[in-house]
Amino acid sequence: MPDSVPARRPRDSAPGQDPARISAPARSPGRRGAVQPASVPLRVAATRAPLPAIEGGFRTVLADPPWRFTNRTGKVAPEHRRLDRYSTLDLDQVCALDVAAVAASTAHLYLWVPNALLPEGLQVMAAWGFRYISNIVWAKRRKDGGPDGRGVGFYFRNVTELILFGVRGSMRTLAPARRQVNMIESRKREHSRKPDEQYELIEACSPGPYLELFARHPRPGWAVWGDEAAAEITPRGQVHRGYQGGELRVPYLDAHVRLPSRAADRIAGALRTAYEDGATIRELADATGYSITRVRSLLARAGTSIRGRGRYAAG
Question: In terms of DSSP bridges, do strands 103-113 and 58-63 run parallel, antiparallel, or are they unpaired?
Fold first, then answer.
């Protein structure tokens, strides 16, 4: 079966156009605020494609629902009329998704939820047939490793988001999870885009087959569902300066904290590419926030030929 669904119907298409070409709204957050008049629709609601299904069900589900906030069109809201980042669903619509029908009888759920909607997130988890176990915190970092203070919120400036972890049936995490801390530290990118580190963490800690709901990009080895999941679809919403992240997107690490093996291989490869393109070890240390010793170790892990002082290595 295909591992993605087709794009949404364009907003100027005819009402009778083939509903099989229309699918689910994508992604999350915004913030609370003034109530919008119920009589003013933001856009025509799309008919959602059915959820992917496989024999035996998906053993791991990742979901980033397009949560609807009270202030639907505020400056940072998903449905801001000019920025038009993505469509949203209300709580009843999210709960009504029949995730239980496509998940295995023993399965894991990783559910993204904004800090302000934690009770709603727990309600969705229960509606989908999972019980809450724990959570993973995404701490958004600046280039220097400090907290990214550009977050929003009426009570505190939010620099974190939560993944609620739930279990259906009885299934522990895999062995690598015993060493995995429940935190991801990385720089943020476009509005609502989640860190790529989540995939490595989930694949190390939970078994496949894998399903991502409200996906914005296809991923090898995963079935994906959402109106921006297909490779040929460009996600809605303008990319703004400050949300793009750096060229080297690496997790912030305290001294002496070890990287998981797969993450270390990925970062080592990226550092080798930058180094062989002419960057110095000190420049790589400044760009990542890592010590020179850690950068040297990662370059060695990638089999990098180190240049002598003041010159490039011979090709």
Answer: parallel
